Amino acid sequence: MQCPFCGQEMQQGILSGDGRSNVCFKAGDKKTGWFDSMMGTGKLTAVKHTLVSFSIEAFFCDRCKKMIIETDIQG
Ligand SMILES: [Zn+2]
């Protein structure tokens, strides 16, 4: 995906965290072990939960320091 701000190719990766440590972004590798069925009403559909953590597929522009998340809100 190209950055809508500067046009540079964005880095695809996984945004993840567990509520105790910092939210982090890891390029490339998919984080595994989550359950789609954990998602509920009002949550971003891109968020994948486990019992203790979450992960979101995201694109990061290193030049603009911006992130794009493809998601929807469940109503
Ligand atoms: Zn950019």
Task: Please give a structural write-up.
The radius of gyration is 13 Å and the shape is globular. It has one domain. A hairpin with a 4-residue loop joins strand 3 and strand 4. About 12% of the residues have low confidence. The protein contains no helices and five strands. Strands 1, 2, 3, 4 and 5 form a five-stranded antiparallel β-sheet that branches. 0% of the residues lie in helices and 35% in strands. By secondary structure, it is mostly beta strands. It binds zinc ion. Zinc ion binds next to loops.
Question: What's a quick, concise take on this entry?
Answer:
With 75 residues, the protein is mainly beta. 0% of the residues lie in helices and 35% in strands. The chain has strands at 11-17, 24-27, 47-49, 54-61, 66-69.
List keywords for this structure.
0% helix, globular, five-stranded antiparallel beta sheet, 75 residues, mainly beta, 35% strand
Topology readout:
Layout: E1 11-17, E2 24-27, E3 47-49, E4 54-61, E5 66-69
Antiparallel strand pairs: 1-2, 1-4, 3-4, 4-5
Zinc ion binds next to loops.
How far is the N terminus from the C terminus? 27 Å
Task: Count the DSSP helices.
Answer: 0
Number of strands: 5
Q: From the alpha-carbon coordinates, what is the Rg to the nearest angstrom? A: 13 Å
Give average pLDDT, whole number. 78
Low-confidence stretches are 32-40
The percent range for helix content is under 10%
Shape: globular
Tell me the structural class: mainly beta
Tally of domains: 1
Order of helices and strands: EEEEE
